[in-house]
Amino acid sequence: MAIAFYMEENYTSKFDNSGEGLAFRQPIMATARKPDENLRVTENVIFIFAFGFIMYKLLAEYGLYVYDSIKGKGYIGAIIDPFISRQYYMSIVSVIVILNTTLVLWEILSFIIQVLKQERNSAPGYNKYKAIFKKVSENYKSSFLALLVIELLPKLILFHTFWIWLPHFLKLQLFTINLTWYSWAYGYLCWEFSSWLFHFTSHRVRVLWCLHAPHHSPTDLNMTVNWVHFFAESYYSTFVRLVILTLLGVNPAMFLPMILIDSAWGIFIHVSERTVKNGRLGSLHHLIITPAHHRVHHAKSPLYVDTNFANVLPLWDWLFGTLQPIKEEVKTEYGVTRDLDVTNFSDLYFGEIFLLWRDIKNADGISNKLLYIIMPPGWTPASKANTASALRSDFLKENPGLGTTSRNRFLAAIRSAFGAAKMKEGEVAPVLISEER
Predict the structure, then answer these.
(1) Left, alpha or beta for 306 (phi > 0: left; psi -120 to 50: alpha)?
(2) Could you tell me the pTM of the whole model?
(3) Of 34, 197, 225, 276, which residue is least crowded by CB atoms under 10 Å?
(4) What sign does the dihedral 180-93-215-433 (CA atoms) show?
(5) Dihedral of CA 247/253/255/258: which sign?
(6) Per-residue pLDDT tens over the stretch 339-354
(7) Confidence bin at 413 (pLDDT 50/70/90)
């Protein structure tokens, strides 16, 4: 996640090494206007409806597929049928989708059971049910309301924009690769690069962060966080991916398999620590993006902020210096760094847009107004000290060893092989984009 808008005059950071692991004091930041009570009540009523409707739909469809699986169809058929027809990627995607659906339901239901147990001994009455509702809202209100928004909006402006725009972009394609195995490898690396670039710019350009910030707002990372996206974000992601894929000649026949694999795995890596404690997935941690990597991405420590942008393969993060392994010394606390009540859906969904508009309106001169739009979150005309890169740099000055990764050691080996001086202990190698992750 990127750093949200900071009020420079109230900046109080510096790092706090007390307590469990390395923590840091949060800067005091601007916040959008608080909603009136009527809006809050309206949001809660809609959340209750959304929670009931979506959970009923999920449980009903899941139960139907399990029932059909007993007869050799359902989930079983979704795995076996593509395998027989040699669409192996569909079998892989089906396995991940089945796992994801099971884990989503497990996370929601187990959390509710846990909350009910915690409040079991509380005195019955309004306060007890209010406490239960508050805990459920803090974890799931943003997810269910965001999903309801996507369900209610016309599909034309969401996922299907990819397929609507595709024919027009293909007219710009100068060459097209074939479907050999090495072409598939090339095509998938191109897809991963397009995803990395979309994700990286969504964190480093203020106006794009306004679209992406809702996804980083929840303070509890679980698989329903994958539902929390600003609906218009798909316009930008589609544009970036189609431009890169067409310019690099990726065969359109590859698009659907890549989208399915990317989406299915992208949902899984949001799995909560309650369900998968460690998240490293053993040796896979060195080969693919795991839940542990993505927990780093959603964390708001200066060491973790704006790292691990990839969805499946860590290659581009590694090359561009944005790959950051999880460190036991640094706690993973989730959410954005501005003052935000996660049960205030209006602020969570539209707050960054309001804050950007306020900055633009109050800025002096047209150049500063434009810079607020395109510069990283946290930038002001007076200083860039509150941007993610600056905060990370400050953190690494006090904790240099935490910034050393396999990429540093690899570059040091190359320098040594060519007769360059070896890296000093704890030195962080320079990279093109920002400090080494």
Answers:
(1) left
(2) 0.84
(3) 34
(4) negative
(5) negative
(6) 999 999 999 999 999 9
(7) confident
